[in-house]
Design brief:
This protein is α/β, with parallel strands linked by helices and 269 residues long. The protein is 61% helix and 10% strand. It has a 5-stranded parallel β-sheet. The chain binds adenosine-5'-diphosphate and magnesium ion.
Length: 269
């Protein structure tokens, strides 16, 4: 049976439209085209409504892809978000300051954030939570440790890729450098970190976590001049969150130890 000319041209037009969408790499829209056209027919949607529905599908898919790409790029080591942080368990944290940081206004004026405190108090968790909020808000974020950053810059210098390496660390809207001071940085490590901080200075934000109190930086990073210059850049526009409360991890271990002890005692009695 031959197809009426009207229907045939509609079929061809459908194929062409699908082809246009694919050519423009609007693959999700191309895939949804048939479904949306059926829906438009049965629900008597206006042309505007149908087009809007079709492009909305593409926009949503693109947003999801970009979010996934930003998440992969960011290398956040844990899935933590601010909702996971128990403020009641950490009286050493200024909750108001953290909630203010979570609005991400600090990214707009390229302010830095310093989390200073002993191990286990939640410095990494808070920086990861802020990093996640920034990724979700559409920003490019990159998480690293001070030791990794130093090692990477050292390797890049040996391989003649110093400029590329510096450009890489200049790129993200938010750079998180975790665990400064946990491991002694080699001299070229401290200098590399300074150069990274310096080139981001007033342009984009850096979150730094450290167990070394600011007053002790000069002694902690080999070269006192480099340490002073780094602090100068970092603190010019910065929120400093000193966390001096109890270690959450130790507290948890303590609870576990108590539970085990209680179990042993109850079995013994
Ligand atoms: P730091 O970086 O200061 O050494 P972390 O951020 O790694 O500490 O925290 C240590 C562990 O304790 C992590 O598993 C973290 O999720 C948990 N933790 C720390 N503080 C809190 C808190 N206030 N609420 C919930 N979990 C916390
Ligand atoms: Mg940590």
């Amino acid at each position: 049976m031959s197809t009426p000319p009207m229907q045939m041209s509609e079929a061809r037009r459908f194929q062409q439209l699908k082809g246009h969408l694919s050519y423009l790499k609007l693959n999700d829209a191309a895939e949804a085209l048939n479904r949306v056209l059926d829906q438009a027919r049965t629900e008597r949607m206006s042309m505007t409504a149908a087009l809007e529905r079709l492009l909305e599908i593409e926009v949503e898919a693109t947003e999801a892809r970009r979010l996934a790409a930003r998440e992969r790029f960011a290398c956040l080591p844990e899935p933590w978000s601010l909702a996971d942080f128990d403020f009641a368990a950490q009286p050493g944290v200024d909750e108001k300051l953290i909630r203010d940081l979570a609005t991400l206004r600090f990214l707009d004026d390229a302010s830095n954030v310093l989390f200073v405190g002993p191990p286990g108090v939640g410095k990494t968790m808070l920086s990861v939570a802020l990093g996640r909020a920034a990724v979700e808000a559409g920003h490019r974020v990159y998480f690293t440790t001070a030791a990794d950053l130093a090692a990477r810059c050292h390797k890049a210098a040996l391989e003649g890729r110093w400029k590329t390496c510096m450009n890489f660390f200049a790129g993200p809207k938010l750079l998180i450098v975790d665990e400064l001071g946990y491991l002694p940085l080699p001299e070229d490590g401290a200098s590399a970190l300074f150069q990274v901080i310096n080139q981001r200075y007033l342009k984009s934000s850096t979150i730094l976590t450290t167990n070394v109190g600011i007053a002790d930086w000069a002694g902690a990073f080999g070269d006192a001049t480099v340490a002073a210059a780094m602090l100068d850049r970092l603190l010019h526009r910065a929120a400093v969150a000193g966390i001096d409360g109890p270690s959450y991890r130790l507290r948890n271990h303590q609870t576990k130890a108590d539970t085990i002890r209680a179990g042993v005692n109850s079995r013994a009695s």
